[in-house]
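Same chain as my last thread, 457 residues:
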Amino acid sequence: MFLSIFEIFKLGVGPSSSHTMGPMLAAARFLDRLRTSDFTAHGLHASLHGSLAFTGKGHATDRAVILGLAGFEPDNFDNGAAEVALKDINARRIINAKGLPPLAFNPDTDLRFDYDRILPGHTNGLILNALDSSGDVILQETYYSVGGGFVLTEAELAKDKGPQVPTDVPYPFHNAAEMLEMAEHSGQSIAQMKWDNEISAQSHPELSNGIQRVWEVMNDCIERGLATDGILPGGLSLRRRAHAIHQQLLDERGQNMSAPHTINDWISVYAMAVNEENAAGGRVVTAPTNGAAGVVPATIRYYLDHVPTAQPSKVADFLLVAAAVGGLIKQNASISGAEVGCQGEVGSAAAMAAAGFCQVMGGTPKQVENAAEIALEHHLGMTCDPIKGLVQAPCIERNGLGAIKAVSAASLALRGDGEHLVSLDACVETMRQTGLDMNQKYKETSLGGLAVNLTYC
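reply #2:
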């Protein structure tokens, strides 16, 4: 299966691609099934399982499911309209979805957090039911939110097992070794091969404009995060820090008093700005997930604002290469924190950012692959243990450090000739195996690690 750049980089809403966007999309898909079925539904019921249950409150999964059933979708989400709809549903216990009759739904009883049953396909599982006038189930579907806003039914998940060779594209690589071999034989860069693969399914203007739109949303998110102060929602009373840090950095730059290592603070503040916006439920781009959404845009902003030779026209190449690497990781391992821990989220994002940065800095395909491997290798084993189930601590700072690692990994790769001991494919497979071996409590359940060792009110 060929994964487009617009599947890796999706326009969406925070705080989580797997726990917010995915369930909202699953609910929207269920509505489509109802609209085309022969059944006349009178009510709806939903149950959340595994990680969707354990951290669903902190990730606003319940809210996302209800809004999805009401017809909201992540890519055109209107927060004001959503709040109005939620108040109406809570007051009237009725969901009004376009093309369907009024459907009974009591948020207090018809959306259940099932902490005891993990569904067999994936830890992020939800079951949606349509009920008749007697309360009997007339239509049921199981959905799995497998990370990065990707949603599969039970039947689709069964067919999706294992990496698949892309078809109908000029460069059908399904691992990094094949990608490098095709680059060598064709004389093309990874960015050029990815562009040619994309252009086989869409026009040049569609692709170019779509990539520009992705970067605009990413950059707008950085700017909002840098401009906004205050306390993040969720109960941790965590203060936004990006605004104040950015002001300090601007003041120091004006006084010409910055130490060389301050560049790390610039990289971090761009990433933190994005993830503070994500934590507040703002508009973000999965890169490859919401929880890791700050790494790629922060690295691009570092390139544009702090590298003297930067060319804005190369942002497209950065994103194409990043998407190529993200697609390989998703196909051959996972980008889901609930499946493999944060190595699959921030680790994957750092690999993507390192590859993209290496590309725009003039790296060869071998150096690009090396950059991605270095960044991913040094995230292996990273757990996902969000405090109180919120995508805030350690997630926000972790994106900053992931971006710093990405830049460092690319810099190291550019100092070499592309020859190295550990391949990206070996690193991706190691991440997959590590995720399988990792204790479940360290995979986005908030049952271990920092989530249980910090006392909060």
